[in-house]
Amino acid sequence: MTDSGATGGSSSDEASGRAPGRRRTRVVVAAALTLVLVLLVGVAVGRLSSPNPVTPGTESVEAGFSRDMQVHHEQAVRMAMIVRDRTDDPATRSMAYDMALTQSQQAGQMFAWLELWGVSQAPAEPTMTWMTRPTLDGSYGDHEHTPSGGTEGSPTPAAHQPGGRMPGLATDDQMAALQEASGVEAERRFLTLMIAHHRGGVEMADAVLARSENRQVRVFATGMLQSQESEIDAMEDMLAERE
Predict the structure, then answer these.
(1) How many domains does the chain have?
(2) pTM
(3) Whole-number pLDDT of residue 151
(4) Which residues contact 165 (CB under 8 A, 6 or more apart)?
(5) CA distance 117 to 114
(6) Percentages helix, strand, coil for the chain, rounded to the nearest 5?
């Protein structure tokens, strides 16, 4: 471990902490620029060639998914940036960096949708309300969750309640423990939390696919589901190597 993995510290540690700080700044700036670019492109393309005659409203499944998934992604970015400064392992650092960039970009895309649809970025109803609504076939879905964390169908109303915690979100205590860890311990904590986080993201993507006919949202959710399931497999292998 290098000094960049240290937490807290005295004034003698301040110089060694500058490099991680600069790395974090570069990633945040890159994510912000990506968000702006995606917003501009999304609005332009949407206005010129949107095939969907129906624009999602502020209480639509699509708007609820976009707001909640932005919050979900933002925590994943924070976790990725924390572990990137807490380990020297190249594989973990590379994965964390890729996740931070990818999920920042996806959050920007969802931000752009809400702007394009003319609905507020602020929640119009309690979180997870959209996941309690009927599926496209008129049911709520009654299949069990798969071992990988995805679903064969969609959650039942009992699985999620309006205002409930989003699936896979880490608690404040878990985030604090990750922040305090270093080295292999930080890697284990990160992988454990991110596997659960991705499983929650898969569940949310599966739920919107069961409830939305919006082409942009369906393409996005399908791609996200596939990529996160693949990353879950990779992280499970990495975690097993550290047990």
Answers:
(1) 1
(2) 0.74
(3) 38
(4) 128
(5) 5
(6) 65, 0, 35
